Amino acid sequence: MRGRTKTCRLDWRSLLASFAIVSAAGSAAAQNGMPPCLQCITVRLEHPVVVRGPSPHEPDAPVSAIKLPDGRFRGFIAGGTTLAVDGSTPAALGGQGAVVLTPGPPGSPSDCGRWMTSAMQGLGVLYGLIHNETRCDDPKGSYKWMSIARSEDYGLTWQGLGGIISTDDADPTHSQGEGDCTAVDGHDGYWYAYCLRRRDDKNVVARAPIENPGPGQWFKWSGRGWDAPALGGTGAALDGFVGMSSAYWTGADVILLLATLNSSLQLSISEDKVHFGTIEDPLILYDEYNWKRPAPTELYAYPSMVADRGLNNISKHFFLTYMYVPPNEDFTHRYLVAQEGWIAAASAPQYPQVRTALSRWVDADGGTVTTWTTSGPTLSPNRSYRFDRNLGYVMTAPPPQGGGVKLDECFSETTGIGFLAPAGRCAAEGSARRRPGGYLFQSEQPGTTGLYGCLADDGGGRFVSQRSDCEGKGVRESLLGFALK
Q1: Measured distance CA(242)–CA(397) in Å, rounded
Q2: Residue 413 burial by Cβ neighbours in a 10 Å radius (0-12, 13-18, 19+)
Q3: Which of 133, 150, 271, 445 is buried most, with the most CB atoms less than 10 Å from its CB?
Q4: How far apart are CA 294 and CA 291, in angstroms?
Q5: What is the phi/psi pair of residue 445, to 5°?
């Protein structure tokens, strides 16, 4: 058991300050005064798609996107210099970028760079939330602050309006300031910017009226109200580390925040913009959040939830984007990765709450057909891969009633073969462990499909199949468990 609540009788006042979700699935419960609980929310993620990379510079910030009048989309991807990249969808941003923001002149408070972190659709004008840094070459750390800019040509040129969020603790002994903020329309007449305060690595939030979000209009949450000046004032730290990547869930009238923790990407939710509850199941599992590259583990950073219509007002459907660095690579190998996602709320607790696609990929370079089964990005210095099929969905947490199988993903850079094995068994099966594989059910459940470990007849090595006959291409070695359909 993982301490999950079996009913919706939670202490909502202390947890989410009377958190209320109104959705098609949960409206009846909400009307009866029994709002669905955190355990009632589900997220489904499809297979990762590598959008662009490798690059030594970007992405180095969350990605945002707007919809253009011709129906296409413009994404803003930053790495000290901010690019505008057009594409057919908010996740099809692999083309040539146009530089729209550059670092400030030497000696200026933006001489390290200007990273656009959010596109904000104002009243007849587009605003951009800009992360700025100075002292970037100081081994003791840089100083970070936020400004705002406006554009009247859909983000191709920007007029800087000035600083809006900072601290007065420019301590030269270590990294300081407030930055890494993203902004979200709170649908109450205000923009909300969720930030990282460097002196204590706490999350803080500031807001400004949508009709006038310029300098001097932003105020931080002080713990009592929105009364601390955002320029130089001290805001109250939010409870726990809930992250800076924000979105608004229109179907539930709540703020969503993403946080990259030590070994997982987590989703938190708030109705009142300052008190958050975290969904227990991670969105993505990984081994460690390690910025000392190269490292034997992968790195996920700068997540965003982008709406299918652009911006970050999501309904049921969204795109999860993030920076990804593969195992054993340094920051010259940054990739932008996107996963299609779906979010919903039910009227009763659900498990699992998060499911992520387990996909089989095949070598795209010809020759011997090798396969790679994974829920992560398929990036290898020696081969490229194309999508073959979905094998079902794995859980990111063990089933609360027990009976789960913990998996590892095994991968050989030499052979290019990737497969699943029970946790701790990659070496015994002649391969290296690459990443966590998630969880399967040990026994068949309603809505599940069996997954089998197979050994190919043609020398192609191990592969994973939904068929007990291994599709007539090999010999079945084991029943790995049961994945969600």
Answers
A1: 19
A2: middle
A3: 133
A4: 8
A5: -125, 160
Residue among 367, 381, 451, 454 nearest 412 (CA)? 381
* Residue 116 pLDDT: 98
Closest CA to 202 of 226, 227, 228, 178: 178
Look at the chain and count its residues.
485
**Cα–Cα distance, 216 to 197 (Å, whole number):** 19
In single-letter form, the type of residue at position 409 comes to: E
Residue 175 has a pLDDT of 63
Give the pLDDT confidence of 385-439 residue by residue, as tens digits: 999 999 999 999 999 888 999 999 999 999 999 999 999 999 999 999 999 999 9
Distance of alpha carbon 455 from alpha carbon 459, whole angstroms: 8
The end-to-end CA distance of the chain, in Å, is 23
- Give the distance, in angstroms, between the CA of residue 329 and the centroid of all CA atoms in the same chain: 20
The Cα 148–Cα 125 span in angstroms is 13
3-state SS, residue 94: coil
Distance separating alpha carbons of residues 233 and 168, to the nearest angstrom: 7
DSSP assignment string, 193-228: EEEEETTTTEEEEEEEETT--STT--EEE-SSSEEE
pTM of the predicted model as reported, rounded to 2 decimal places: 0.91
Statement: residue 34 has pLDDT above 50: no
Joined tokens for residue 22: 């109104």
pLDDT score for 21: 36
CB of 122 closer than 8 Å to CB of 136: no
Q: Give pLDDT, residue 142.
A: 86
In this prediction, residue 368 carries a pLDDT of 65
CA atoms of 194 and 60, how far apart (whole Å): 17
Report the SS3 class of residue 28.
Answer: helix
Residue with tokens 């070459």: 137
**Is the pLDDT assigned to residue 384 strictly greater than 70?**
yes
Assign 14 to helix, strand or coil: helix
For the segment 108-160, what is each residue's pLDDT rounded down to a tens digit? 999 999 999 999 999 889 999 999 999 888 877 889 999 999 999 999 999 99
- How many degrees, rounded to 5, is the angle at CA 416 between CA 413 and CA 418? 100
